[in-house]
Amino acid sequence: MGPGRPRRPVTEQGGIGAWEAALRYTRVHLDSKEVYGGCMDDLTVGLNWYLTTDLRKSWNYVITYVQEVGNVNSFQMRIQFCF
Fold first, then answer.
1. Is 60 helix (H, G, I), strand (E, B) or coil?
2. Model's pTM, two decimal places?
3. Quick check: 10 and 16 in contact, CB under 8 A?
4. Sign of the torsion angle spanned by Cα atoms 31, 34, 35, 37
């Protein structure tokens, strides 16, 4: 699944899994030849919880700014299981 391999998975007694904090900034230019789309910037703050080596829960808060449109904020959550 990646770098988040818990030393003590939640399936063991007293195990808390592994936690990971993430921060990402993205800028996308949406112009192409005659099409003017402006720019889109977003900032993502995330938290990952690796319960076991095969199970991860993720939470992200995304702040997006699009020229001519304004701000759009979103909260995302997902569960990933590898098999």
1. strand
2. 0.77
3. yes
4. positive
Token representation of residue 82: 């590898």
Instruction: Please say whether the beta carbons of 1 and 56 come within 8 A.
Output: yes
Q: What is the pLDDT of residues 24-83, one digit of tens each?
A: 999 998 888 888 878 999 999 999 999 998 999 999 999 999 887 889 999 999 999 987
Q: Which two tokens mark 61? A: 């808060």
Count Cβ atoms below 10 Å from residue 80 Cβ, excluding itself.
Answer: 13
Rounded Cα–Cα distance for residues 59 and 21 (Å): 10
Q: What angle (nearest 5°) sits at the alpha carbon of residue 26, between those of residues 20 and 32?
A: 155
What count of other Cβ atoms lies within 10 Å of the Cβ of residue 40? 16
- Decide: helix, strand or coil at residue 18: strand
Q: What local confidence, expressed as pLDDT, does residue 2 receive?
A: 53
Nearest residue to 24 (alpha-carbon basis) of 52, 54, 47: 47
